[in-house]
Design brief:
By secondary structure, the chain is an alpha/beta fold. The chain contains 4 helices and 5 strands.
Length: 122
C-alpha cells in the first residue's frame, strides 16, 4: 500500500481550561497595580473591581472595561464563578475581609484569598 494516499492523523485541539476569574477589593494605591498584573496573566480573567469609596473605581474601570465594578464586597462574594479575591485594602481590614471571603455561605470551597501581608490574628 502506498503512503501517497494516506491521510495525516487529525490532531484534536487541546482543551483550554476555563480562565481563573479574579476580583480585586480596594482600588487605592496597590489595587490598580494588582488588577493590571492579574489582567496580564494568560488564563486569568479580571472579573471584578471593588471599592466602597465613591469614585475610587472610576480610573481602574476605564482600564479594565470587561470587569464588573461594585462598591460592595458582597457582590463579589455572591458570584459563584469567582475563583480568587485579592485584598488591597488598608491592613486593619484584611482579617475580617479574608474571613468573610472564605466563609460566605454558598461560596466555592476552593476560592483563594490573597492579602499582601501576614498579620497576627488573636
Amino acid at each position: 500500500m502506498s503512503s501517497q494516499g494516506a491521510q495525516p492523523a487529525v490532531q484534536a485541539e487541546p482543551e483550554q481550561a476555563a480562565p481563573v476569574r479574579a476580583g480585586v477589593v480596594g482600588l487605592g494605591y496597590w489595587g490598580p497595580n494588582l488588577a493590571r498584573n492579574l489582567a496580564a496573566i494568560p488564563g486569568c480573567e479580571l472579573a471584578w473591581l471593588c471599592d466602597p469609596r465613591a469614585g475610587a473605581a472610576a480610573g481602574p474601570s476605564r482600564s479594565f472595561p470587561g470587569a464588573r465594578v461594585t462598591g460592595d464586597v458582597e457582590d463579589l462574594l455572591g458570584d459563584p464563578s469567582l475563583d480568587a479575591v485579592v485584598l488591597a485594602t488598608p491592613v486593619p481590614t484584611h482579617a475580617d475581609l479574608a474571613i468573610a471571603t472564605n466563609t460566605k455561605a454558598g461560596s466555592t470551597p476552593d476560592r483563594v484569598t490573597q492579602s499582601p501581608g501576614q498579620h497576627r490574628m488573636t
